[in-house]
Amino acid sequence: MKSLKFKNTLFLLLTLLVVHSSIAQSKIDEPIKNFEKLWSEFNDRYANFELKKVNWNQVYKKYRSLINEKTTNDSLFEVCSLMINELKDDHVNLIEYKKGKIVKLNENATPTRMLEKFPKSKKKSPNITDLIKVTDLTLQEQGFSEFTKEKKIIKYSTSDQYGYIDIRSMQGIGKGKLKSILNDAIKAFENKKGVIVDVRFNGGGDDKFSYEIAGRFTNQTIVGHRKKTRKKGTEDFTPLKTWYLKPTGDKQFLKPVVLVTSDYSASATDVFALVMKELPNVTIVGDYTRGIFSDMDDFKLPNGWWATLSHQQYFSADMINYEGKGVEPHVEVLNPATDIDNKSDSVMIKALEVLQEKTISSVKKP
User: Fold this and answer.
1) Which CATH architecture does the domain made up of 113-293+311-356 adopt?
2) pTM for this prediction
3) Could you give the 3-state DSSP secondary structure of residue 172?
4) Helix 31-45, helix 73-85: angle, nearest 10
5) pLDDT per residue over 78-107, tens digit each?
6) I need a labelling partner for 259 at 20 to 30 A (CA). Which of 24, 116, 346, 347 fits?
7) Is 186 helix (H, G, I), strand (E, B) or coil?
């Protein structure tokens, strides 16, 4: 199967559901064979053992002893999940399907700080929906308009002085539609002193999508990032490939920009933050991004399970690898759970303060 270039985990899983909907499993066929296949594929293709400080041979010894020919389906899945979770990599997944639906998915070994405080479940409070509502309320109290032509993925609004754009995904709409929305947004921001770009709730998508957006905030061509791919079965990598950020659209916004991030800002959104940080008019406020950059490469086990892994290394323009660490904000601030009761988004308040400082200093410059 061709390697997948989309980067958002949820998108990948949904795509695999469609492509492999006929897969159904009733029993394990040779547990040892499946375990060995999983381990060896990672051994031959995974790109970041050294960076993660994981000795994969030691991991094999730790988990191989737990598998024999009588190992049940459930037990095998549990052991294999524990093994790959040693890598603490959100692009590493083990997936079992039955009748076209996911029946098992390895648990994330390192939950995000954002989702620990604000889970997705509406049965828990406070949750991420509560935080988004507080963000909207905070913007309204700061003089921002209702969202213009509100979209599911991208929405924007303005106040007398500033613009705000909320980007929830780096995929999900076509290139033409994306350009149209960005054209409208940049036009709305044209006479504003500064703009806030909010990607705290953006789990990723496609790097090209990220570059299309980032290109609206520069009028120069610069190095965005570099990447290389591990050659299967060797310790070698392909030559570095350089991605260039170029101006996109008819007009660009070149005045101060505050990019707001969280550790839920992942994958292609990691890349977006990495590239935006190269721009002199951008200040990042919030938390470190998630730190999962590689495209996900997928493969099938003999018993029909699917697995994904990170087979690439990404670098900033100055050759720093932020895998597992995330892109560092210039101003670090996180939303406390008390923001919900206070009905005030403290990260957004800080972002507005920083934007005001940056707009004042930009006016003072000759």
Assistant:
1) Alpha-Beta Complex (3.90)
2) 0.90
3) coil
4) 20
5) 999 999 999 999 999 999 988 788 888 998
6) 116
7) helix
